[in-house]
Amino acid sequence: MDTAVSGAAADAAPSDDRAGAIGVIGLGAMGEPMVRRLLGSGSRVRITGRSPRPALVEAGASWAATPRELAAGAGAVLSMLPDLPELEQALDGPDGLLAGLGDGELLLLIGSTSSAPAVRALAERLATETQGRVRVVDCPVSGGVDGAEAGSLSIMLGGSAEDAERAAALLAPCGRPVHLGPLGAGEVAKACNQLVVAATITALGEATVLADRSGLDLDALWTLLGGGYAGSNLLESRRDKLVRGDDSPSGIARYMIKDLGFAADIAEATGTSPALLPALRAFFDEIVARGYGDRDIAVSRRVVAER
């Protein structure tokens, strides 16, 4: 018998306990508040990471020293790691998630913003290597840290109806999960979301510069326009930053380059000739080239002003 599998079987929690627990890997700006929401709902949560998280353990989470231990004690694992390369590192090797599978099954929830074709390819590989015992749902989120803390995230699900139903039940404490289609549909939806966000913050930054140079009261302007068709959740969350010229980090600008790249891949795959997407990709490339990639997306005001 394979030593990794037999060891995992020996370490695994009782089947009922494992099936009812959710593991979380990727305890960064989004992952940590999502864990707190899950704990607050009474979910049994196991966590792992590069360093211990005593505050989360004190809040009720169970610590797993390795991804292997995480999978051995949870029937579902949510990955809030940055992208698929980091997830694949956590999957493979003697201490990886797959080594902790034993004879059980695992529902892998991919919360990163990633390529839809790459998510499908990973799911196919995992299904082949585990004889179908690992199933995948993509579940990227929108709403930022504020939404994660409030439990109001928009959660975009892609996968089979059965798997998406289970994913929705598990993730409901974190926001509103909606099944949008087959595997990869969540990632397509997130790319569409990021296209709208990029276009909106670019327009808001540009309009702020126009208004400021014309002598308008910016606070009064955005308070007024926020009540009309120009209003949006993004304006509400970034209004003060735009008014003050504050682009201290919250939603990191350089991440948009990857997201818009995924949108471009979808445009190519669907035979779509986009009007805004090329300009937005060029603008966010410019933001990074100017050294502002680690600033908040509200840096759009600064970059327009400097041109």
TrEMBL record:
Q: Name one GO biological process term.
A: organic acid catabolic process
Domain 3-hydroxyisobutyrate dehydrogenase-like NAD-binding: residue ranges: 184-298
Q: Where is the active site?
A: K190
Where is the 6-phosphogluconate dehydrogenase NADP-binding domain positioned along the sequence?
A: 22-178
- Any one GO molecular function term: NAD binding
One Pfam family this sequence matches: NAD_binding_2
Keywords, comma-separated and alphabetical: NAD, Oxidoreductase
UniProt entry tagged with the keyword NAD: yes
What family is reported? Belongs to the HIBADH-related family.
Mind telling me what this protein is named? 2-hydroxy-3-oxopropionate reductase
